[in-house]
Structures are given as structure tokens and as C-alpha cells.
Amino acid sequence: MSIAPTCPSQSQRGSDESAAEAGLARRCLYYMSLMRETEDRIERKLYRQGKILGGVYVGRGQEAIPVGSALHALPADVLLPSHRDMAVFFIRGIPLGRIFAQYMGRMGGLTNGRDGNMHMGDMSAGIGIVSIISALAATVPVAAGVALALQYRGTNAVAFSYFGDGSTSRGDWHEGVNMATVLKLPVVYLCNNNQYAYSTPLSGQMACANVADRGPAYGMPAEIVDGNDVLAVYEATARAVAHARSGLGPYLLECKTFRMTGHSAHDAAEYVPAALFEQWAKRDPIVRLEQKMIDHGWDDRAGLDALHAQVRQEVDAAVAWADERPYPDPATLLGGVYDGE
Amino acid sequence: MSIAPTCPSQSQRGSDESAAEAGLARRCLYYMSLMRETEDRIERKLYRQGKILGGVYVGRGQEAIPVGSALHALPADVLLPSHRDMAVFFIRGIPLGRIFAQYMGRMGGLTNGRDGNMHMGDMSAGIGIVSIISALAATVPVAAGVALALQYRGTNAVAFSYFGDGSTSRGDWHEGVNMATVLKLPVVYLCNNNQYAYSTPLSGQMACANVADRGPAYGMPAEIVDGNDVLAVYEATARAVAHARSGLGPYLLECKTFRMTGHSAHDAAEYVPAALFEQWAKRDPIVRLEQKMIDHGWDDRAGLDALHAQVRQEVDAAVAWADERPYPDPATLLGGVYDGE
Amino acid sequence: MPTTYLEAIREGLWEEMERDPDVFLIGEDIGVYGGAFKVTAGFIEHFGARRVVDTPISESGIVGAAIGAGLMGLRPVAEMQFADFISCGFDQIVNFAAKCRYRWNAAVPMVVRAPSGGGIHGGPFHSQNPEMWFVKTPGLKVICPATAYDAKGLIKSAVRDNDPVIFFEHKALYRRIKEDLPAEEFTVPIGKARVARQGRDLSIITYGAMVWVALEAAETLAAEGIEVEVIDLRTLLPLDRDTVCESVKKTAKVLLLHEDTRTAGMAGELAITITETVFEHLDAPIVRVTAPDTPVPFSPPLEEAFLPNAAKVIEKARWLHRY
Amino acid sequence: MPTTYLEAIREGLWEEMERDPDVFLIGEDIGVYGGAFKVTAGFIEHFGARRVVDTPISESGIVGAAIGAGLMGLRPVAEMQFADFISCGFDQIVNFAAKCRYRWNAAVPMVVRAPSGGGIHGGPFHSQNPEMWFVKTPGLKVICPATAYDAKGLIKSAVRDNDPVIFFEHKALYRRIKEDLPAEEFTVPIGKARVARQGRDLSIITYGAMVWVALEAAETLAAEGIEVEVIDLRTLLPLDRDTVCESVKKTAKVLLLHEDTRTAGMAGELAITITETVFEHLDAPIVRVTAPDTPVPFSPPLEEAFLPNAAKVIEKARWLHRY
Ligand SMILES: Cc1ncc(C[n+]2csc(CCOP(=O)(O)OP(=O)(O)O)c2C)c(N)n1
Ligand SMILES: Cc1ncc(C[n+]2csc(CCOP(=O)(O)OP(=O)(O)O)c2C)c(N)n1
Ligand SMILES: [Mg+2]
Ligand SMILES: [Mg+2]
Question: Chains near B, with 3+ CB pairs < 8 A?
Fold first, then answer.
């Protein structure tokens, strides 16, 4: 019989911290695994079966970026994911089945078949995800407006603005970042530098070495992080979010990674030297996190396998659910262009 | 009776250099004076007389920038002046009367009344001036294309791309500069940082301290120069042009200056603290150059007065000529939208 | 005291900002300077910099930021310094703002104010009438008021609308058009045309500054015994096809008038609307008076030749009447 | 061996690059990758990186660079990866390229290639038909070929043209349409429509992919004894008003057809052209079959309902014939 100490002892703190780290790692692994499995199903199965039509873009190998960052989002925060940030949707609680329905053009998808793939969003309270449009970096000025609204309302919420390396070439990227820095808006910029934009390598997009080199052009702190280390992304995002949340203005995180696929499902990526794929395969963020979890004794192989098995089950169930959703009735074509229709 | 030495002695070299400097200074003074007088006539006389309608923007106090830079342009080079770079037209040999006719909407102006003020250009060999459009920074991507063509043809000519501080906020500026740096195109960027964009001070345009701070974002050398010292601009432009001409890619010169007027003829600039005008009036580029010329003994007061008098005469004659030009015949409204009409 | 068209817009914005704390302004030089045309002069002093946001020169940024704020439930009113620069924020308007609701059921309440039109010696880049690009884009609403009353009533409706609205303010009307406005509050509904003048002989269908040209022409024609009906569309999208067709049923002859250039102007949509709906009522060709297919020229004689005016309308109307 | 529409464009570009060393290509992923649709596959290997310029993702930059090169006398052919992204380079096209010649007599020879149109499950941002924004802009030329022959002949004419040309390539035709092309060189003149099928009972006026829909409908209607004339506009600006009006004079009944959305589509300009020119020849309302005023939806049943097809054309044509 003892009274719980108000201040934990050194070793207890250590083991609490370790438990917290283990818990965080497990959450990260779960979401990364869910993203990998979901996208594999989309790209390697449903697309090839012809159940998904049109363009399909995945974030294979880049899962650490949406996961490590979006876990910092508070309910009032708003996220503007790019086309390779699937996990953002999971973390914000969008049911998996709805995502498959979205890809398959079915009712129950986030756009009920009106749009496809990652072109989805949901502004409901606690979700707060703005749908991309195809035009790259178009969400960057929009993120400034979202952040302006968060500031306008006197909250300390922040906007998470995601984009790829190539998207920084666009005028919208410049205008959006410049405005946010001039107005000191609470935006965290998350660049996935996967070193390619479609077939164009980084050197064909910019004459500077890093996307982070662009920070000073806007008087904005910019940091480079290993984008294949989810815990590193998590830590760096903590700094970035703290900065933005405390009213100091935008913060840019460049997450170095690699696109482990073609640009889209129909692109064999023959323009990428095979050695690069091999090299980066060794840095797979899921494998690396698993290794760390085992090394730290946070989990063992069996536990990890169980997690992946659970993920596969969830995905199976979600696909089955989605595949039972009907296609939209052509009669629904017309409504909803304007309010009240 | 002596044979001219093939190699000049130390003192001779000094005096030759000095003569060259004196000559350069005199050319600079002439063009700056011509720009000042021309724009004064436009803004303070013809506009107020109602002989010029619409928007009128002048470069008072900024004359050193177009003069010190454009004097480096070789015949094959192409210039894309901003709306405050009048002297570029003089240096490229456009007759003064045509400029007044342009402002007055008369035949004989560079657009024969179809467009007004600085919206004029001439792609003739040896002139090579691209007309701005109003949309700020729109010429920046165009300069990349001009430079691409110069490179394509295997010349070592360069494009001079002029813009103001505020114009760097535009997406076009970013896209144009980024493309030119990625493709290593021969462009010299000349920013007149006059610290205002219409009513907006620099801090309302950018969160970095200098436009030159944007160079590294494009892997581009960038230099700050006293934009009210024409010889300093001249020297810095020599470096910039040498860089671009030798195939090393773009070079950015930020010329610090001040807009000694309102944004346009109808703007009293009440938003500019009076102290700033006073402070910058002391740094007038014409007065400073005159002082230097006198100090170095390159000329005396009488000589300078004579130069200004000559300029006034030229301007008088040009205004008289322009004022005799007819307005365009309304019958000319339709042709020339397409080739061969 | 009559209120100018400009003052009417100003009042409308002011009242909406007083009424709804979620309404705010965003644009270039709109704060301390009060805007290029001084529409927002005095706003920053009264409402503060939080609600009157001066931005860098970034039309795409401004529109994008307005979209973001609109998605968050605020009611941004963005100003383009001149309508001509709206093409710099084009993608954000036509692809982002216009399509959110249809795609993912997200409301983008947002007004883009755009001072448009010629007659002020602004030349090719300060005189354009870019309305058709937006009339062409489902998901947007497009407003072109002609009177001070409508300018005020429609800007208020635009601010309250739950969809993105492009609001064209004709610069030549800013200080030229005045009228006494009601002391009590009023709005004008979006999507309703107005019969600006009743007539039985022919219909002139127009909008914006050309309403005044049509009315001027109608006066002259009335003296000749030709009774012209003038329809002021007020809103181009959604288009009030009923009012247009009713007028055609009544007069059987149609003259379409716009300051915008000829090809692919509003006249086209009106013509097809009329022929597909009330073809049998037509007694004569549908004709149009428009600016020609050129950029807007700068020099006064050219600009005058470019702009439609009462004389050109009268000539065509007489021909149509005789037909 | 029949040549596909895509291959025809490829051949046209190739021949022009062989013919004129001043012709070059600029765009995203057009070099090593050969373009998103592989139109320029093999070009960089043959012509080198000097003449096949891969750029950063910057549509405004690409168009601007093409303008600059055009002003210097080169003949740039810029590729938009999808026509939908042309709105990101909009200001450069409508304000810079389109107005140089009129304003200061500067030629801007330049082609902007833009893969447009639906039917490929591309959704709202990979399916649009943005031609009207450019038809609305004096100074541009706008081309929408329907056949492989025209695609080749017109891209060659576009490259040789001394004015800025927007060249819409319909993605759904790229690999679906094939025909035998002449072995010898040919071009197709810009600004000339084509009678794709002769008929006496009614005219369907259309362009792009809808030409095939019109022809399909015409087949069915012919079996019913309705002889449809199909006009393929080929060029939308400048518009071949004569060919349009000649056909109307012959058939007296007009069905306007476009894949573009309804309001302010090409049908409008055609309708006003017809009523102001050959009104007396009309025996029936001018009608239109178009996509509805929505974004292009993604899901197959919605996209199918969205796109005009032969059934919809036939229904309207029957009604018109009975009228
Ligand atoms: C404005 C615009 N231009 C071109 C495209 C076509 N496109 C789609 S994704 C892509 C590459 C994007 O590269 P990056 O920003 O690095 O993102 P990543 O795909 O590598 O994650 C391109 C060129 C587009 N969507 N939008
Ligand atoms: C795209 C665009 N937006 C707005 C304007 C209106 N405008 C004309 S000049 C100007 C300020 C330009 O500032 P800066 O680039 O610093 O040049 P400066 O006039 O100071 O030389 C503005 C806002 C414009 N011409 N183009
Ligand atoms: Mg990338
Ligand atoms: Mg400035």
C-alpha cells in the first residue's frame, strides 16, 4: 500500500518515456503499414483489375512523412495533403472503406464518384482536410488563407501544407509561401523531396541543392530531415509546429526521401537509375522503424507481424465494403454546383 | 616630335583611364539628365496639361539604374525594362520625339497610339527592347525565353531583365528566375529596390531583408549595389554581364534606391514618411555624379550646366515634334491583330 | 445626397462588415492607401488591419488565400487592383474555387472584386472586360452592376452568397453614376435581370456600363417613335433567361449590346438562349453591337472608335426596327 | 499502315523540326520521358536537348519562355501536360502573347499544345475543354482537329503561323482515330472548316472529338431518311463563318454540338453568327447538344452521362427534323 508519487522517480520516468516512445512507434508503424497496404492494394491490385480507372499516385517509401507529421495535428488544425500523403486521411479518422470507394468511383467515397484518387477532402470539425486540385502547389496559397482564418479567429491552430520538390517550381508555391511569411501566418510546410517530379530529377527543377535553401528567401526557418525516419520526422515536426503555433510564422521542413515507384501506376520509371531504387530500398521507413522497435525492445517480430496482419484484415474488409458500394446514379450528375441545388 | 609609345607610361595610362572615366561619367550624366528632364516634362507638364492621359509612372531618383546597366548592352543583347527604366530607350537609340508621341497617344509613338506610357518595345536589330505588359514580372519568364533564343543561336548575348522589389512577389518572377537558373540561361536581373510597391513598403512584400537574399533560392549569385551611384551600378553590371555572357547562368543585382515620387502621377504618396524623401533627396544620383565629376576634375559647373541645357533643348524639340504628330485615324483601329491584316 | 456607384459599393461593403464579423477584405494597397480607386478608404481605420489585409503583389496568392479563408467559413472579399490582373489568379478561380462544392461539397463563400471596363484611357491592360472567362466556368457567379442601387444591393448579396462570386465594377461608372439610395437596408438578388426601360418595338439586352448607352439610345429612338425595351442583366451567371425571353416575346426584335469584344461575348449565349427558347417569336435577325476583336487601344480617338456608343446602337436599332 | 491521331501530331512536329532549325519544343517531361502522352518520344534522341527543352513545373514560365523565344524569331512549340493546366499560364497567353502584335507590331510565333477533353476517366482536372477562354481572346488562333489528317496538317500550319496558336489535341482521339495519310507532305490551312459529311436536312456544326459523335449519329439518322450535314470547324478562331452559313443556307436547320459545357460555349458564337447572317434561312430553332454546366465528373457512369453522345444528338436531331 503506497501513495503514488506525484513526481515519478528517475527510472520510472525512463520507463514511462520508453513506453510512450514504444506507443508512438507502434502508432507510426500502424499508419505507415496501413498506407503501404492500402496503396499496394490500389496500385497493384485494384488498378490492374480495372476496378480503379484514371491516374493513381502512391507514396510508397514516403509513408514516414505524412505519418510523422500529421500525428502532431490537433483537432482544430487543418491539413492540405499532397497526392502522396494518404496517411493524413487515416490519422484524421476517415474510414478506410470510404477511401477505397473514392478510388473506385463509388458512392460512399469522399466525393461520391465526382472526383477520384487523392482529390478528396472533408472540412468537418476535427477532420479539416482540404482537397488538392491537380494543379500542383495550388493548395499553398489556400493554406495561407486557412492559416489566416485560424489566426483571424484567435486560435493557435496551424495549417499543414504538403507538397513535393517539383511543386516548389510553381508560381503558386512562391506566392503562397511569400504571403504566409509576410503575414506571419501559422503554416507548417512539409516538403517531400523524393528527388523526382514525374520524370524530372531535382536538378531539372531547381538550381539550388535543397528545397530548404529556399527558406531564407522568405525569411523563414527551414530544416532538412531524414524523411525515411518517421521518428525524426515526428521530432522535427514538433519543432516546426511549436514555432508556427506560437505565432512566429511559417516553418519549412524538407523531408528527404525517394519515390519508390513510377510517377503513377502507368509509369515504369525507366528514367530512374536502378541503383537509386536499390539504395533507397535499404532505407525503407517501415523496415527501419521495425528494426528500431526490436532493437529497443519495444516489440518483437511476432508483435509486428500481428500488426501487419491486422492491417491486412482492415484493408480486406474495407475493400470488400467499398466494392459493394454502388456507382453513383447518373441522375446525380447535375446537382451541387451551387449551394441549395 | 616623338614616336607614340606602344606601351603607355604609368602616368599616361592613368590619364587615359581618367579620360575614359570622365567620358563614361559624362555619358551617364547625359542619359540620367535626359531621363529626369523627359519624365519631369511628362509628369509635371504634359500630364497636368491633359496632353497625356491614363497612368504615368516615372523613375525620378532611380535614373542611375537603367543608365548604369544598359550602357553595357551590346547590339545583340535584348533588354526588358520595367516601367521605371526610361533611359533604356534612349541608350538603345529610340528618338526622343517618338517617346513623347507614345505618351501622348500620337502617331509616331512606338505603338502609334495603340498603347501608352512605358508599354512600348522594338525588336529591331540593335535595339532589342521587349515591351512590358502591365502584369508585373510578366517579362521575367519572357526574358528566360529571350535568353534561351540567344543561347540557341549560339551567341554570347544576354538578356537584361528589369523589375521592382514588389514584382518579386509574383509567381511569374519565381517561375522565370527558376527556369533561367535551371537552364543556365544568360540573364542579368536588375532589381530596382525603391522600397515601395505602390503604397506597400518592402516589409509588406517580403519577409527577407533584401531582394538579393532570394538569390540562393535559385543557386544564383546576387549582389547588392548602391542604386543611386551610377558608376557603382555600372561596375556591378559589368560583373553580372560578364558572368552571364560567359555561360555561367543568371546573376541578380539588387540596386537599392528610392522612389522619389508617388506611385504614379496621381498619387501624392502621403503614406511615405516625409523624412525618407528628405533623406534620399540628399542621395540624388544626378547630384552625386556631378559632384564626383567636379571633384575628379572631369568637368566643371559650366560644363555640366551646358549639358543640362542641351538636354532641355533636346526635350523641347522632341515635345514640339511629338505635339505636331496627329492622333491615329480611327480607321486604323482594326488591323494588325494578326499577321497580314 | 445622391450616392455614386463607387460610394454605393463602399457602403455595401461597410454595412456587411458591420453586420458580420466574418467578412474581411484582402488585396493590394487596400489598407492604408484605401485601394487604387479608394473603394476601401477608411476601412482599415475603422475595422483594423485584421479585417483589411494588405498583401504582396500576388493575385493567385490573394485568390488562393480567399479560398482558404472561405473554406474555413469566413467571408473574404478579395480585390483585384484592375480586372485585367484577374488572369494572374485564374487557375485558383476557375479550378479551385469554382469546383470545390461540386467535387467534395465544400463551400467557398468568396467575392472577387474586379474594376473592369474602358473609357478611362487605361489602354490594353487597364480597360478589359474579362467577364466571359468566368461566365464560361460552372460553379462561379458573375455580377456586373450598372446602377448605384444595384452595385450596393448586389455587393451585399455577393458577400452573403455561399458560392464564389466575381463582381465586376465598371470603372467608368465609379464616379459618373449617382442616385439617391434608400436609407433603409436593401439587397438585390443575384440572378435576376431588370427591365431598365419598358418598350414594345425592340429589346436591347445588355449589362454594365452599356446599360447607360442603351438608355441614351432609347431616348433618341423614342423621339423617332421607336420604343425600346432595355434589359439590364445585372448578373451574367446564373443568367436570368426568363426575363430575357419574356422581353423577346414582347418585342420580337433583339439587339445584344456589350462593351466586351465581339467574338464569344455574352451576345452568343443570349442568342442561343433566345433561338432555342423563343425562336418562333423572333421577327428579325438577332444583331449585336460590341467592341471589335482587338485589344483595348489607348489613344482617345482609337478608344472612342473601339467602344460601343449610342450612335452605333441607334443605327443598328433603326435597321432592326425597319426590318 | 494507318496513322493514329497522336502519331500524326508527332509526325507533323517531326517534319517541321527537320524542315526548320528554328522550331523547338519546350515543356515538362517532354525530353527523356517523351511527354505524358509520348507525343515527343524519340525527339530528344534525334534532335538533342537544345531543341527539346525540359523545364521545371511552371506553365507560366513555359508560355513566357515560348513568347520570349518567339519574339526572337524562333518557333517554339510549348506543351501543357494537360490542357487543364493552361490556366496556370493564362496571363502570359491572353495578355502577353495575344496582344504583342496589335500593341507594338511584334510577332509572337508560338504554338501551345494542350491535350484536352474527356472520356478517359481523368476527372475534373484532366478532362477539360478550355477552348472558349482563348476563342474569347483576340490575337490568338485556336485549333481543335478531329482527324489524323487534320491533326498533322494543322500542327504543321500552326508551327509555320506567325501568330500565337493554341492547339487542342483531344486525348480520347490520340490512339482511337487512325487513317492512312498521304506519303507526300501536306498542310491544312488554319481558319477553314471542313464539310465532314454532306447532307440536306440539317446541319450539325461541331469540332474535335464530337465530329465522330456527329458522324455516328448521322449514320443512324440516314437510315431513318434524315440526311445530316456535318461541319467540322477544325479552327475555332478565326472562325470560318462562311462555311457555317453556307451549310445553314442549304439545310435551314442547325444543331450545334460541343463536348464543352453548355453556357458560353462555342454554340453561342455560332448561333449569333447564324442569326445575324442567315436568319431568313432558318426553318427551326437553333438547338445545342453539349455537356452540362458542371465540372467533368470522374466516375464512369457520371462521366458517361456528362459527355454528349450519338443518342443525345439523334434525339435532338429527330426533334429538329420533325419541327
Ligand atoms: C500545374 C501542373 N503542372 C503539371 C502537372 C502534372 N504533374 C502531376 S504530378 C507532377 C510531378 C510532381 O512532382 P512533385 O511536386 O515533386 O511531387 P511528387 O509527384 O514527386 O510527389 C506533374 C508534373 C500538374 N499536376 N499540375
Ligand atoms: C499583376 C499586377 N498586379 C498589380 C498591378 C498594379 N501595380 C502596378 S505597379 C505596382 C507596384 C509595383 O511595385 P514594384 O515592383 O516595386 O515596382 P515600382 O513601381 O516600385 O518600381 C502595382 C501593384 C500590376 N501592374 N500587375
Ligand atoms: Mg517529387
Ligand atoms: Mg518598388
Answer: A, C, D
Confidence grade of residue A12 (pLDDT, cut at 50, 70, 90): low
- Residue C283 confidence (pLDDT) above 70: yes
Best CA proximity match to A307, nearest among A3, A22, A20, A102:
A22
Residue type at B187? V
Report how far residue D272's alpha carbon sits from residue D256's, in angstroms, rounded to the nearest whole number. 12
Q: Is residue B120 part of a domain?
A: no
Contacts 24+ apart (CB under 8 A), A279-287: A280/A61, A280/A228, A283/A228, A283/A258, A284/A61, A284/A228, A284/A260, A285/A32, A285/A61, A285/A62, A285/A63, A285/A64, A285/A227, A285/A228, A285/A229, A285/A230, A285/A257, A286/A29, A286/A32, A286/A33, A286/A36, A286/A63
Q: What's the number of domains chain B is made of?
A: 1
> Hey, how many other C-beta atoms are within 10 angstroms of the C-beta on A213?
18
- Identify residues whose C-beta is under 5 A from ligand 3, the ion: A 164-166, 194, 197
pLDDT on residue B10: 54
Whether B76 maps to a domain, the answer reads yes
In this prediction, residue A11 has a pLDDT band, given cuts at 50, 70 and 90, of low
Domains of chain D: residue spans and CATH: 3-179 (3.40.50.970), 194-322 (3.40.50.920)
CATH number at residue B310: 3.40.50.970
What are A51's three cell numbers?
Answer: 476496378
The C-alpha atoms of residue C198 and residue C192 are separated, in whole angstroms, by 16
Tell me, what's the pLDDT at A2? 39
D91 → closest Cβ in C87, C267, C295: C87
Tell me whether residue A258 is in a domain: yes
| In-domain check, residue B290 | yes
* Cross-strand pairs, D110: D164
Give the C-alpha distances (Å, rounded to integers) separating D118 from A106, A161, D129, D166. Answer: 19, 30, 8, 18
Structural contact between residues D136 and C264, judged by C-beta atoms closer than 8 angstroms? yes
Residue D268 contacts residue D290 (beta carbons within 8 Å): no
D95 to chain C: which residues are within 8 Å by CB? 84, 87, 125
Residue B48: alpha-carbon gap to chain centroid: 24
Residue carrying C-alpha cell 497526392: A83
Name the grid cell of B241. 554581364
Query: DSSP strand E in chain D: where?
Result: 3-4, 23-27, 52-54, 75-79, 110-116, 141-143, 164-170, 178-179, 194-197, 202-206, 228-232, 235-237, 254-261, 287-291
Q: What is the mean pLDDT of chain C?
A: 98
Q: Specify the DSSP element, H or E, that contains B23.
A: helix B10-40
Structural contact between residues D107 and D101, judged by C-beta atoms closer than 8 angstroms: yes
The residues facing A273 across adjacent strands are none
pLDDT tens digit string along A181-225?
A: 999 999 999 999 999 999 999 999 999 999 999 999 999 999 999
Query: pLDDT value at position B223?
Result: 98
The sign one gets for the Cα dihedral C181, C187, C191, C192 is negative
Tens digit of pLDDT for each residue in D57-84? 999 999 999 999 999 999 999 999 999 9
**pLDDT score at D141:** 98
Low-confidence residues of chain B: pLDDT under 50 = 1-8
Tell if the CB–CB gap between B146 and D139 is shorter than 8 Å: no
Between CA C146 and CA C269, with CA C241 as vertex, the angle to 5 degrees is 80
pLDDT of residue B229: 98
Task: Please tell me which of the candidates B133, B143, B172 has its beta carbon nearest to residue D68.
Answer: B143
How many interface pairs between A and B have CB atoms less than 8 angstroms apart?
A: 82
Distance CA C255, CA C275 (A): 13
Q: What is the residue range of B224's domain?
A: 32-92+164-201+212-323
Q: Cα distance from B53 to chain C (closest Cα, Å)? A: 6
Report the gap between the CA of D156 and the closest CA in chain B (Å): 17
Tell me the C-alpha to C-alpha distance, in Å, between residue D238 and each of C266, D139, D210. Answer: 18, 10, 19
